[in-house]
Design goal:
- It is a single chain.
- The protein is mainly beta.
- It folds into two domains: 85 residues, Elongation Factor Tu (Ef-tu), domain 3, CATH 2.40.30; 62 residues, SH3 type barrels (Roll).
- It has three helices and twelve strands; from the N terminus they run E-E-H-E-E-E-H-E-H-E-E-E-E-E-E.
- The strands form two sheets. A six-stranded antiparallel β-barrel has the order 1-2-5-4-3-6. A six-stranded mixed β-sheet has the order 10-9-8-7-12-11, with no helix packed on it.
- It starts with a strand and ends in a 9-residue tail after the last strand.
Length: 169
């Protein structure tokens, strides 16, 4: 079974076992329809839980799962990740992509010149930045329409419009 992280438990809320979640999605609505999640420090250690409730409270996301009914039980899960099955993932809105779909993508120019491979995604307040590895060097490409010409998830290829000097050695 393929599992994907949708957030990290960063604390607890109240005495009834609510988990405070730092989501890796920009929209809480993407989490509200979940029926089951898996919680653990890795995919291999994750345990299945039925979701009772997802709340947005004071600009934070609270998750209530069955069998976690006390603050003590919730505290034991702080630091763990929340995973979902691939089939439970809602597709991202247009112009947004799953990190797993972008990492490993070949990066090319509009002329077809291969410039590297996406090795990481940095989520920053202003916009995401894709780390493009070219040989031993890494380059930061802001994910904005001025730089990203096209993304082909099926072909695992990203076409960028690099500014002059971006990939200079």
């Amino acid at each position: 079974m393929e599992l994907y992280a949708v957030g990290k438990i960063i604390g607890c809320f109240g005495i009834d076992g609510y988990l405070k979640l730092k989501p890796s999605t920009h929209s809480v609505e993407r989490l509200e329809s979940l029926e089951d999640v898996f919680v653990g420090t890795s995919v291999e250690t994750a345990t299945a839980y039925h979701v009772d409730e997802v709340l947005e409270k004071n600009r934070g996301i609270m998750l209530k799962v069955q069998a976690v009914d006390t603050r003590t039980a919730a505290e034991s899960l702080v630091g763990a990740f929340v995973f979902v099955r691939k089939e439970d993932l809602k597709p991202p809105p247009d112009g947004r992509y799953f990190v797993d779909d972008i990492i490993g993508a070949e990066v090319v120019t509009p002329e077809g010149e291969v410039v590297g491979t996406v090795s990481d995604v940095c989520k920053l307040p202003g916009q995401d930045v894709w780390v493009v590895r070219r040989g031993e060097k890494e380059y930061m490409v802001p994910v904005v329409k001025e730089f990203i010409a096209a993304v082909d998830i099926a072909a695992k290829r990203v076409t960028i419009r690099p500014i002059e000097g971006l990939f200079d050695e």
